[in-house]
Amino acid sequence: MKLNVTKLFENKDYFLFDGAMGTYYSSRHDNSIACETANLNDGQTILRIHREYIEAGANAIKTNTFAANRFSLTCEQSEVEEIIKKGWEIANAAVRDRETAVFADIGPVPIPQGQEEETEYKKLADIFLQCGAENFLFETFSRYDIILELAAHIRLKKPDAVIIASFAVYPDGYSKEGLFFQDIFKKVSSSGLVNACGFNCISGPAHMCRLVGQLDIKGRLVTVMPNSGYPSSERGRTVYVDNSHYFAEKMLELKKLGVKILGGCCGTTPHHIAVTAKLLAGSGSAAGNTGQQADKQVLPANRKPLIQKLIAEKKPILVEIDPPFDTNWEYMLRDAFLLKTAGADMITIADSPLAKSRADSSMMAARLQREAGLPAMPHITCRDRNLLGIKATLLGLNIEGIRNVLLVTGDPIAIIERKDVKGVYSMNSSNLANYVSSLNDNVFGEASFEIGGALNVNAPNFDAELRRSVKKIENGISFFLTQAIYTETAVNNAVKAFEVLKVPVFAGIMPIVGYKNAQFINNEVPGIDIDAATVESFRDKSREESEILGIEHSMKCINKLYEHVSGFYIMTPLKRIHVVCELIKRIKEKKV
Q1: What letters, b where the CB count within 10 A reaches 16 and e where it falls short, cover 360-382?
Q2: Three-class SS of residue 554?
Q3: What gap in Å lies between CA 500 and CA 470, rounded to an integer?
Q4: Of the candidates 207, 326, 369, 486, which lies 20 to 30 Å from 107 by C-alpha distance?
Q5: Contact 279, 254 (CB under 8 A)
Q6: How many C-beta atoms surround the C-beta of residue 44 within 10 A?
Q7: Strands 346-349, 376-381: pairing kind
Q8: How far is it, in rounded angstroms, from Cα 434 to Cα 476?
Q9: How far apart are CA 116 and CA 70, in angstroms?
Q10: Rounded Cα distance, 76 and 60, in Å
Q11: What's the DSSP call for residue 523?
């Protein structure tokens, strides 16, 4: 029987989806085989499971197509199309002569970098549209941009389609892409492109209740489909315990909060749905949500970040110190004291530059700030930590009193080492900035981080670099440190960036201290260019002569930039801190 889902939303005080086909199917069959392929070779079992959920009380089911894409299943697109069409056919056969809706189920596609993401998703949506699908569920997503694009694509072809967007967030409210659940909900719910928005997977029912309690859902259609709980392992197999009564009680709590669309994700069986349906049916009308947000942190106004305060007073000088390859770190403390005496305003600690492992930048920054009394800013790369590790680092830094971080994507690992060392890269620096900015709003409050970003003034297509920087600013970057500047082009680009971006820009200065040093920087350090004449000017010079010449070259750039940038970011060459101290002295005295 064809079901008008929109009317059902209006006329019922709750709407109950089925549970997790994947975990239920794999708990009874070979869990090494993707359950979506069972549409082709074990269709009767899939049909039987659909009917079990319907008999249990579900008035909506999802097609068995969550991971039906060529990347998840490592198959050809023609086979994906066959799996989706068969999944649609089986689900519709299961609801025949019943008032049960069928939703085309689409999950995240693990598209390799460089592939056209939007096109892949549109192919899946178009297959369902060709089948006659009117209801769509996008579930377990960690970001919303692609869903909004797909929703618009579907609405152009089928304006009255019912579209539900569901996101996977951890118990702390963040998705694996670093987006906060309140921001996701506000953005998607207000888009006008989806009928309902909510959350599923990763978190159990208790955490879902807590998160929903912090949302203003008045006037919004909300969906919540938590895992049954957290899995355990038995004889090497992931299993979920039967906690159906506890699950149902939490579903009732969600209903009373005003959630209208309920269901289950991993670990929820027909028994969970049956117990839930019985409890919900006898619960009376939902209490609704008052619109008040629980535990909302009130942020103080007019906080004056250190970088902004320094800029208001002078041209600040930031100095980078590289941490050691071993445990001999004492030179860093010595250098920090020397820089403090010379007049440096802040030190920055590089995070394993050139992808060579060094002492942790965050721990070194905390120790140096504590012992030397000079503000320290660690660099944090996306290369070496997943979201869990990054959040743990940020929490520790915040406790230690660090209030400034520089977020960079990180140099790639050398090809020869990739068989032993793998980069993580859960996100890029722009995404990471958005994540830290969200933590500032929702966790750190008055103790927020001031977020810096890197700017490559040597980029061949500098206009594209500026566009990326604008996006970084939108995501929370409030100032930039540039790559080392040696050429006239780089000088002009730094000036242009300061004028265009309208945020503080610190000009990167790294004194050259020898001919070999110049050759190495020019040939082996990513994103830095030195003109041939400058490199050649160091040939056959002594160490002392090279250092003097390096300071002179640096001052030429500084003099050109002085009136056009917010301050200077000096990178220490080969631990020669005395060169940096002399340069600081020259800048402060403005000797030309």
Answers
A1: bbbbbbbbbbeebebbbbbbbbb
A2: helix
A3: 9
A4: 207
A5: no
A6: 9
A7: parallel
A8: 6
A9: 13
A10: 30
A11: H
CA–CA distance, 54 with 37 (Å, rounded to integer): 22
Are the C-beta atoms of residues 70 and 37 closer than 8 Å to each other? Answer: no
Give 180's DSSP letter. B
Closest CA to 93 of 63, 116, 121, 118: 63
Nearest one of 310, 309, 333, 311 to 321, comparing CA atoms: 333
Spatial distance between the Cα atoms of 462 and 398, rounded to a whole number of angstroms: 34
Q: Nearest-CA neighbor of 368 among 411, 401, 399, 406?
A: 401
> What pTM was computed for the model?
0.69
3-state SS string over 237-263?
EEECCCCHHHHHHHHHHHHHHCCCEEC
* Residue 467: how many other CB atoms lie within 10 Å: 12
Angle, nearest 10°, between helix axes 145-157 and 117-131? 40
Alpha-carbon dihedral sign for residues 551, 356, 383, 405: negative
In angstroms, what CA-CA distances link 556 with 339, 343, 586? 22, 20, 11
Q: Under a CB-based contact definition with an 8 Å cutoff, are residues 511 and 551 in contact?
A: yes
CA separation for the pair 163, 136 (Å, rounded): 5
CA 327 to chain centroid, in Å, comes to: 32
Amino acid at 552: E
**Residuewise pLDDT in 10s, the chain (592 residues):** 455 566 556 667 788 999 888 888 877 765 667 899 999 999 999 999 999 999 999 999 999 999 999 999 999 999 999 999 999 999 999 999 888 999 999 999 999 877 788 999 999 999 999 999 999 999 999 999 999 999 999 999 999 999 999 999 998 999 988 899 999 999 999 999 999 999 999 888 889 999 999 999 988 999 999 988 654 444 444 444 557 888 999 999 999 999 999 999 988 999 999 999 999 988 543 334 433 343 433 334 445 688 988 998 899 999 999 999 999 999 999 999 999 999 999 999 999 887 788 999 999 999 999 999 999 999 998 877 788 889 999 999 999 999 999 999 875 544 444 444 455 555 788 889 999 999 998 899 889 999 999 999 999 999 999 999 999 999 999 999 999 999 999 999 999 999 999 999 999 999 999 999 999 988 877 778 898 999 999 999 999 999 999 999 999 999 999 999 999 999 999 999 999 999 999 999 874 4
401: tokens are 């009193």
| Furthest CA-CA distance within the chain | 91
Nearest C-alpha neighbor of 217 from the set 253, 249, 260: 260
Between the CA of residue 521 and those of 153, 177, 416, 574, 585, what are the distances in Å?
48, 34, 21, 11, 24
Residues in a beta bridge with 453:
407, 480
Torsion of CA 110, 114, 119, 121, to 10 degrees: 10
* Matching residue, tokens 């008052």: 290
Report yes or no: 558 and 568 within 8 Å, Cβ to Cβ.
yes
For the record, the structure tokens of 374 come out as 């000079």
